[in-house]
Design brief:
Layout (H helix, E strand, L loop, with lengths): L1 H4 L3 H6 L2 H15 L3 E2 H16 L5 H16 L3 E3 L8 E4 L1 H6 L2 H8 L11 H12 L3 H20 L7 H8 L14 H18 L1 H5 L7 H18 L1
Antiparallel strand pairs: 1-3, 2-3
Helix pairs in contact: 3-5, 4-5, 8-9, 9-10, 9-13, 10-11
Length: 233
């Protein structure tokens, strides 16, 4: 059963816990009963080794354990009531809903936004929204972080907002965040870049519902926000 549910072993070992978690949840649900945590984790490792020929892989065991913790934290798994031992778990109603085709696809799309290379704020504040399929909120949160980072880095006040803040911060004539090593046209282009990004990806969501349905497009936009955060430093 595990071969039909889990990705290739080498791929599975590279996944983040939240990326691996959905496969773990599907496997637990397929068993159709309450599952003992440690028995399940060790069983997965044993089954994976059985068809790969590898010995016990501590790195993989830790990833499975972390994925389990993530499922608990998201309330996709919960302790089974009535058991004297707290290590028995069942798939919650929320978990069942996630395993429906549409939501399962959203969770699996998390591989489009892997943590490597992402700003810490994107990982902590944006990626959980993306994993749940809340792409519009994830994009808004990413560019709100850009706005907040620019405000903080430039020492501006909470009343400095949006595109005006970007143009003030990166104004070639006295902007606090302007890169003076760039030629004047590129300095101006940088101001346009930040103002345009905030105007296109953050401001509309502040005033109306913006519906992003394509996870690939959403991931690309969030990676753009991540690039802007790197520029700000």
């Amino acid at each position: 059963m595990i071969k039909e549910i889990f990705p290739d072993f080498e791929i599975a070992k590279t996944l983040e816990p939240e990326e691996l978690a959905i496969f773990l949840l599907k496997l637990i649900d397929a068993r159709g009963r309450s599952i003992h945590r440690n028995t399940m984790i060790m069983g997965i490792d044993h089954e994976m080794n059985a068809y790969t020929g590898d010995q016990q892989d501590l790195v993989f065991l830790r990833k499975i354990s972390e994925a389990w913790c993530w499922l608990e934290n998201e309330i996709l798994l919960a302790p089974a009531p009535g058991n004297s031992v707290a290590d028995w778990f069942y798939v919650t109603d929320k978990g069942k809903r996630i395993l429906a085709d549409q939501d399962f696809t959203k969770y699996r799309s998390s591989k489009l936004l892997q943590s490597e290379g992402l700003d810490v704020a994107i990982i902590q504040k944006v990626k959980p929204l993306f994993i749940r399929g809340d792409y519009d909120l994830a994009i808004f949160a990413a560019f709100r972080e850009v706005e907040e980072r620019v405000r903080k880095k430039g020492g501006y006040t909470p009343t400095d907002l949006g595109t005006d803040l970007m143009r003030k911060s990166f104004n070639p004539n006295g902007g606090r965040l302007i890169n003076t090593s760039l030629p004047a046209p590129e300095q101006e282009a940088q101001a346009h870049l930040f103002a345009g990004a905030i105007g296109l990806f953050k401001n509309p969501a502040s005033h109306r519902v913006v519906d992003y349905n394509d996870p690939k497009q959403a991931a690309d936009i969030i990676h753009f926000a991540n690039l802007l955060l790197k520029i700000v430093g």
